[in-house]
Amino acid sequence: MKEYVESFLELLYPEKNTCFICNTYNESINDKYICIDCERKFIKLEPPLCAKCSKPIASTDHIFCRDCCTYDRSFEVSKSPYSYKGLVKDSIYNFKYYNKPYFYKLFGKCLIDYMKENNYTDFDYIVSVPLHPSKLRIRGYNQAELLGRYLSEKLSIPYKDVLKRTKKTPKQSQQSKSSRRKNLKNAFSVKKLPRNENIKNSRVLLIDDVYTTGSTVDECSKTLLNFGVAKVYVITIAR
Ligand SMILES: [Zn+2]
Ligand SMILES: [Zn+2]
């Protein structure tokens, strides 16, 4: 199955040394999938950042942002290399909605470089935020799962397909913060499979494409903790 998916996706890849974003050919691109000009346009999150959710904060006098002071978070920490703006935002949109599943290689590589630089690799398992089955049928792939499996392979951390989305929720960007939180309540559950039992008492890295209000990853973290996972850490491409 994996070989089939890989070879199918291979057909859709731009040629080697071609930037996934702007299609420029340059031999220095190599295994990065992005040219220097496009990479410069990816805006990095710069400190001071909230110690919990990595939101930029005004001064180093505070540790947490206002949201993290107001709401309890089920995850330990959430990290992202990029700010959800400009070219990063457009590229994630293309990754999700314009049938560019192979973008997982580009973003996966960015995440791995970032995680290694920040010593953010000490996890027992990698888990991704699931799509509702009806959405998965339409899109054909779950972008978070593609990223999760890529990270798992490159970092030699087992990937666990444990979460399922039991409730269909409206598109997040069209809702207010409080209605997102309400809609997502009990939206996820852990698949009842014997091989999922060993995630109990482990440190799990949860992956999603974007951190918006944090309600999705928070609800997934809550579900994992209720199942018996010891700690949940989050990574997203951008926030
Ligand atoms: Zn480019
Ligand atoms: Zn925060």
SSE pattern, N- to C-terminal:
HHHEHHEHHEHEEHE
Structural class: alpha/beta
Query: So how many helices?
Result: 9
The kinds of small molecule bound in this structure are:
zinc ion
Overall geometric form: globular
The CATH architecture classification of the domain at 74-238 is 3-Layer(aba) Sandwich
Rg over CA atoms, rounded to whole Å, is: 18 Å
Mean pLDDT: 90
- Count of beta strands: 6
Proportion of residues in β-strands: 5-15%
CATH class of the domain at 74-238: Alpha Beta
For the largest sheet, list the strands in their spatial order. 1-6-5-2
Give the terminus-to-terminus CA distance. 33 Å
Predict the CATH topology of the domain at 74-238.
Answer: Rossmann fold
Query: What kind of sheet is the major sheet?
Result: 4 strands, parallel
* Low-confidence spans: none
**Portion in helices:** 25-40%
